[in-house]
Amino acid sequence: MAEKFYITTPIYYPSGKWHIGTCYTTIVCDAIARFKRMQGVDVFYLTGTDEHGQKIQKVAQAAGVPVKEYIDKIVGELKDLWKLLDISYDKFIRTTDEYHEKAVQKIFNKLYEQGDIYKSEYEGWYCTPCEAFWTKSQLVDGKCPDCGRPVELMKEESYFFKMSKYQDRIIKLIEENPDFLQPLSRQNEMLNNFLRPGLQDLCVSRTSFDWGIKVPFDPKHVVYVWLDALTNYITALGYGSDDTTLFDKYWPADIHMMGKEIVRFHSIIWPAILMALDIPLPKKVYGHGWLKFGTDKMSKSKGNVVDPFILCDRYGVDALRYYMLREVQFGQDGSYTNESFIKRINSDLTNELGNLVSRVTAMVTQYFGGQIPAPNAEEPIDAELKELCQGLYGKLCKDIDQLAVPQALEHIWEVIQRANKYIDETTPWILAKSEEGKVRLATVMYNLCEAIRYVATTLRPFLTKTPDKIFAKLGIEDEALKSFDSLAVFGATKVGTTVDKGEALFVRYDLNKELAYMDGIIEEQMKQAKAKEEKQVENAVTIQEIGIEEFEKVQLKVGTIVECEKVPKADKLLCSKVDLGEGSLRTIVSGIAKYYTPEEMVGKQVVVVTNLKPVKLCGIESQGMVLCASDDEGNLTLISPATKMKSGSEIR
Ligand code: ME8
């Protein structure tokens, strides 16, 4: 039976703010998953979206769209991004999927019934505008640390998970299984900052919003988003459903991969939940570092978001995948700069890899009519290149097992660099000058083609377009010659195969020109971010919630327009006399002359705000306001009762 391998990324918040940092986890996991598949391992690679919680509910509401509809669109965009980046996931889970929701309810029930979840009261300092609870120590000068406004001590009825019960087992797990939590630095962080000071029971339900999975036996509560989200790793495999085939096959996970900021949830809360459910623990939790923009965390509001769609469009998917996998020392924070990106493409991809392939295919074309010649005159200098090729796969296996992805690429590049040096050392252009030299030249060309085949084959998990282009240039169609198995013996490339130099694999970029281009994009992004922020402020003003007591202060009545005329010297204004059943008529000035003629107005029934303070408009005192609806396309219409009403009827 094939060895199995279950690898997961975190499930992504449908924030819609995708930048290259967001793609980091998925690209790394993808390379590992592809590598394992090529080794003949039965891989299950899971990713998905984390769709519940107050934040997303609020954003959707502010956009005026039903929450699910709002999220569906963003999830579609995320899937497009994964498609663009050739992410080869086996399953995409959404926490709004019905099977997941049902399984989470089952889990919650089970934990409640066995006493691991209990009902109590959550007490904390509550900031109403932010809808957030804070502990006393988190407050800044006794006020909300986020917005600086006053907070009040509030209690919320909640369910709690007995996390404290599992504290000692988790400490033991981390201390006794150094492989469980990696890299090492994260172990000390978890032990010293959270576990040894003592774990508190975890609040696992909320009542202040409802965009979540309902607690089955107490539906005014929704399940805490992290409990909902973490369980995706087992519900995606069918845990809690009628069909647990995948769960039985793939669980426990071999690697949960994530950014360092969510290691706490995966190495403390998640094991505690699994322990309570009596399910085996994942083999490894790995918290990688952040990809920063220069020295800053990427954020849309800072305008330093590097857009993967733009980069792929201009430089190709493989350039981005290569940069992400090679540039950052895995486990540590890395820094993206436009300059280092372009330099990596120019040096590693264009100068080293691209050049090697084009030089060799050009020489085979020129000296051997495009057919790979038979090797027949070995010299000691060949041994080093051959050994390097033959040893490559073994090194890569070790690198991938240790999650040393950049080192894996470095090892492939050692072969590329050695092959380029081999060309300089063997001087094919001199060998080509004599018949005797040509005998030796055949061997040199064969060895180079074979070395390039090693490179293309081993690059397959990391780059998704380039290896196939190289195979096409080498005329290799046989799938067996693109497999890891074919790397056992140097010499598998078939003599006589026809090569095709074709187009260059990579372009060489003018650094300054590209930097100017990218600066232009960042500038545009900043402009857009600023405009969006302004719009949000504007929206926030319009959508600010008010209590019923405030609304009741507004008096609305049905009025009938009795007279109407244009206001002299004011293009936009009409002055109406309105019957509000008060005995005398009110004078109301409205800015609607562009939409209605005075004649059209007369006889219309309208909605009037009757208790507005009078204002003078163009010298006329306006004693109320006529309500209208308007849209973005410049339409405007009066609001009228659906059927004729008595003038002065109250609107409630
Ligand atoms: O945390 N560099 O989702 P998320 C590297 N829903 N990695 C980055 C990054 C950057 N600049 N920015 C984001 C969540 N990431 C939860 C997970 S799992 C049960 C729930 C990574 O959308 C981040 O570290 O905020 C994480 O691994 C992934 O993107 C998703 O983050």
Describe the structure.
The longest helix is centred in the C-terminal third of the chain and has 33 residues, at 511-543. With 652 residues, this protein is α/β, with parallel strands linked by helices. A hairpin with a 2-residue loop joins β13 and β14 (296-297). The strands form seven sheets. The chain has a six-stranded parallel beta sheet with strand order 3-2-1-11-12-7, with helices on both faces. Strands 16, 17, 18, 19, 22 and 25 form a six-stranded antiparallel beta sheet that branches. α11 packs across α12 (317-327), α13 crosses α19 and α14 (380-401) packs antiparallel against α15 (405-426). Among the domains are: 338-534, Isoleucyl-tRNA Synthetase, Domain 1, CATH 1.10.730; 548-651, Nucleic acid-binding proteins (OB fold (Dihydrolipoamide Acetyltransferase, E2P), Beta Barrel). 44% of the residues lie in helices and 17% in strands. Residues 10-13, 21-22, 24-25, 50, 229-230, 232, 258-259, 261-262, 290-291, 298 line the site of ligand ME8.
